[in-house]
## 1
Amino acid sequence: MVTRRSLLVLGALGAAGVIAGSAAANSYASAMADAEGRIEAGSDRVPTRFGTLEYTEAGDGRPLLMIHGTGGGFGYLRSDFPPDLSSENQADAFIDLLDALTIDSIPVIGGSAGALSAMQLAIRHPSRCSALLPIVPAAYAPEHETAQPMGSLQEATLRAMLGSDVLFWIALNTIPDQMIATMLATDPALVAAASPAEQARVRRILWNILPVSRRSRGLINDARLAGNPAPMALEDIAAPTLTISLQDDRFGTYDAARYIAAQVKGARLVAYPTGGHIWVGHDEELFGEIDRFLGEVR
């Protein structure tokens, strides 16, 4: 999820200066070639009432719908960017995807900003959602302080940064801790103390945002939706629900997860004291909780 915190990166970018030289140019070219190759492999597109939606299929076994957070979705990569990208419309588009795949009912996982459309799907199309899992949900909670909307200059600056692969690549190379703190809402010290496998996972999350220029419209839209999330009729959700968050998530999703658990009848809350927005140190444990929950509701 991208919020106004991301603007803090801009000052550091200015201090970082420009990485010059043929070695840097070659490194950038290699990183972009890897990024472009990654996003071109293994996806399909389907028409929906709101335009074309890109999706991918992976794994085997019973299907589930995973709605990713900021970094992918409508406005990202090869998905269209329709005029009204509300969470409600995104949820309806996912129904068109399920129809195209001839899937009647499915567990729905929504991560970060993706939790917004996942919950709307459960509210608007209850017969199509067999289980709901909002993970680190960038959703409404009454305890949240209402964020001030971005001004035109701030939004223009954010657009410039998120629209530039070069700037983003420079930031990843020169100020990785600031990128972890702002883009991933996680204490960099947690990452520094984590296992090598967890450190590698964090690096993949950041580097897989490239090419950021192909995702910028979706990133900006997610910032608007998740920056000031609207209340939802959570009491209308009938699907078995598991929500997971971290108490030190700098995006404040712990309050949202607690609120979801309190409002959705029978919902279960799993919370970890530390780990930030990307649950550093809890990856295996978190997915173990998801596996157990899906096994129970199956």
## 2
Amino acid sequence: MSADVLLIMPKIDEGKDFHHFPFGCLALAASLEKLGIEYDIFDERVDAADLAIAKLPGYRVVGVSMFTGYQTTRGVHWLRTIRTLNPDAITIVGGPHVTALPQQTAQSDLVDYAIAGYGENSFANLVSNILQARDSDRARLLNTPGVYADRAGNAVGWPTPKKYNDIGWAPLPYHRIDVASYLNPETRRVMYVSQYGCPALCTFCATPETRKWTSKPLELVYQDLELLDALSTFRQLCFFDATLFTNRARTMQLIQHLDDRFPGRQWLADARAAELIRYSDEDFQKIKRCRADLKMLVVGLESGSEYIAEKIVKKGKGHLKNFYEIAKRTHAAGIAMTSGVVFGFPGESANDLKMTNDYIAEIRKIHPGFRISTTFFKPLPGTELYDQVTANGYMRANSLEEWADFGGGNHYNYNEWNDVPWMSSAAQKEYLAEYRRFMDVHGEIVT
């Protein structure tokens, strides 16, 4: 018996040989399994497109995930392909781009339903009703939080609660994908998501605007990791959470589990300075002593200018002081630390970049092994800074198709110069000079 539902993970960018798992598809798949609904997963990054195209006419429902940027371009490509090969299929789209712009997305002729926010419950319930031939009762379907559809030229739906308390957590069906196709044979690194969202209010990041922080039960995390280990025998475990360290008690319990269950392996995680500052020196020493070695701790910096960090990006009062203290503590504990620097924020000047240059020089003195990656700010819908730049006329896409055309123009490129359209030509020239000085001074620690 063929499956009724196809879940599509479009390409996120081009030219990558190894990828993270299709977490969104896996989460939705887990919710479908609980209802006994048959499904397939097609990940354009690793699966042969011709096989998906050949089977496409047989599905009654097709779900497509989209993140703003190149993946939206590819998502629209697949939606058009669906309309051509299987015009009767019900298309459901979700993901960060849709969460930020559900009404705009639902207005596309390529889309039957758009789902914003956590999709496990809403997607599974919507699919179940469609498969039971109850799709005609549209009014009832649109009473589901987060489900949007276009009716007579108007996109309607219920707003999505920023925090769902009724996520039906379930083990991720890793056995339904070819785990080996995602592994770098040299690192054998796997990625895992143990928490959704982030409690921070950063104005450039779409996560806190649309999805508040919530965590999986640790027993389920342990169960997922056992299955991942059985399928991959991983050597490195990368926690793909926006921040792993929000709940200290939970984090330390998880680290103890890694010590007990995965000695000799390595792990990586992201953190916020505002959270790590609550951890004691003893905590850092315990983290370092864990027999599963913390290969890299990634702590968000963004800018070394207090004005940019606190007023523009809203990293929180005392962010630079906290970050400095964490750099001292991690070095004392022998923990490798890296961070990200974002250039070209709206309102940023060459002098702000000079402050970042000077600040990182100070961090390098107290943590000689400190490393950074760099990128330029790109406005993501659903964020405060996106609203600011669009209000000032710097960019505006008014439909899903226009976002698809824009595509890679809003994609993050790492460790290379990008023009900054909200700067005057004179200001950008001055900023470029400071950027070059930054790279001259710190290029050796850019990864």
## 3
Amino acid sequence: MATGTAQISIPLEETTGSTSIATDTLLSAMLRAHGQVSDLIFSPGRVPQIEVNGELIAIQATGLRPLTADDTRRIASDLIGSNKQAITALREQGSCDLSYGLPGLARFRVNVFIQRGSCAVVMRVIPTAIPNLASLGLPARLEEVSSFRDGIVLVTGPRNSGKSSTLAALLDGINRDRVCHIVTIEDPIEFLHNHKRATVHQRELHSDIPSISLGLRAALRQVPDVILVSELRDSETVEMAMEAAETGHLVLSSLNAADAAKTVERMVALCSAHEQANIRNRLAKTIRLIVSQRLLPRKDGSGRVVVSEVLNFNGQVRRCVGEKDFSAHKLVQIVKAAGAEGMQDFDSEIAKLVRGGIVDSDAAQMHATDPEQLRQALADLR
């Protein structure tokens, strides 16, 4: 990951040393350093850093010195405040997740963790406005999700690939289009959804519920039409998501997986070996759609562009997923052949970006599912 520097301005009375800079003042100044800040990082021995389009940038300001362990501990304390659950998690587990807001400016997903006996803090910037699918560069066909009445819709990809933004856009579409009851179970709450046509109740891990599984269990008694779970992390949440879908609910969630085929493999692998055949069959029947995404650097250096894979669970896909000898390669071939049905695979979409001059060939190879096959598909450009 590349590094650079960015100059910020902090009021003179705040610059007598990093320990005297109010946390909110520092956060606000760091956000102003660049128009596309995605993360803020505070680590002992380093000046504060921001991440912009995958590049770490060190913050420079008059009187701002490298942070000490006392500095990062104070920043962590200011962010955690009186959140007893976060304090307990940090003490007992070595890290905690929480949300934090600067009124009128930004919201953050925060992780505080212990390293070498001192605190470090990473803050993900959450846009105040809920994005739409078009602004995220995602296929218009995903608007169809708002018409689904049951089943599971998954947004997958590696960490920091924009899954939370896509889930928020899908949920906002349902909120805008349907008269229904939506319950979310989030860790932590990121985007704030106001009631539109739907009634929306957002529940946050630790603040509102003690665990994701208990929140999901309770949601089934809260007469929701739509349930959003921020992430499927274990066999219990996978099982409960399938149960909800089987009983007439629409479930939206995310999973850390490289592509649609790996999503299926990972969900099956989360369960014990003797349950996996049954799980494959249930997934084949309950999943409606998987959208996987990756972020690639733009050729002109102006930022990153999303590329997505869309897997619609038609009859052929359901048979493939339900087979005992599930083949990821076979699933990819089905997707490649089903473009007329709105499906799309990563490598074909990446090739379009290269041919359109948006992404260079080196970046394309690096992010491709099958680099050699992509190289051959673009051989005429050499």
## 4
Amino acid sequence: MDKIFIEWLVSQRTSYGNFKKGEIVKVPKDDGLTWIERGICRVPDMVEVTYVGKQQSYKWRALGKKEKYILNQNIPRVLPLKDVKYLHKFPGEFLFNQRIAYKKSIVESIQTKENLLLKYNGNYGDVLRLSGIIKTLYNDGYRINVKVKNDMCELFKNNPYVNQTQEHKEHRIIQIDDIEVHDKEQANILRVNTWLTDLGYEDSPYRKPEYYISEEEQKWAKDYVDRDGRLVIGIATSASVPGKTWDKFIPLMKILEKSYMIIVLDKKINNEYRFNLRQLGAVIDECDIIITGDSLILHIAGALDKHCICLFGNTDGKIMCQNYSNCIPIQGKCKLGKPCWYSMKCKSNYHTEINPCLKSIKVKDIIKSLEGLIF
């Protein structure tokens, strides 16, 4: 541990600044120990420690006996500050949100917004879902930066909880990929819930994705969607993998286009999507109803509180849509009686062919749900 907290016993001028008697600061360990030996400062009695990091457990020696701290409980604990150093023996990258528990008047003097860099290699929909935990961390005093692949940073544009300035500062890195989610999802625990629990925020109220559309984007979408008094239905015909792609969208659209304005949200022109990410979000917001598979478009629609009908095969719609109050999940019928998530016990190839349980969904199922929304 390279830094420790100290409490000044006298007012003191140092190379780190001027400090008053009773003020608590975090300083390099060697300097702190020197000042302690000189009798001009001491280690504070107690601090409150909230763990942010991988779920781990570790046995360490404190007060002459061995005790076991289990991080996956993620409960803030008040500890003697001299014992906090033991927690740094955990492997991997950890962040400890340390607050003084017994001197509320000086909390502001030791709390600064620390730069966090969230690194994640997920697909588009999962990256957008990351915005739920970003809001949680921001509201706890952190300055948030993200590093994702390709053009996915566009999903965070206009998001007030994400640093938009591209500043190059020292960051504390949190590797989101290191948090195991697939086993938990098969136990019906939504990915964002696992992230929050593993980061120490299992009680956070922020779980829904955040997506922000500018006034300019809204105006563009209104001009693009010439509804002419009709109800506008946005349809996404594909997903990130064939296993999530329903095979009956064409007959569905032939029925719907007789009465409604249909916009194919993922239509390609010359092998390029006709909407970029920002345009896509704005058009979704302009639609009255969205029909989609388990895809990015579902999560944008959920973030924007749009009425949405979503089709699920091997993933569980009730779990995936639990934070989307206006989403109606339609679940394909599985021979096992419940979604298998990623185990694919039906022996289908998730990455090359449609999932059998998704195939079981009929056009009439969507029409029935749609009529419930309209009438």
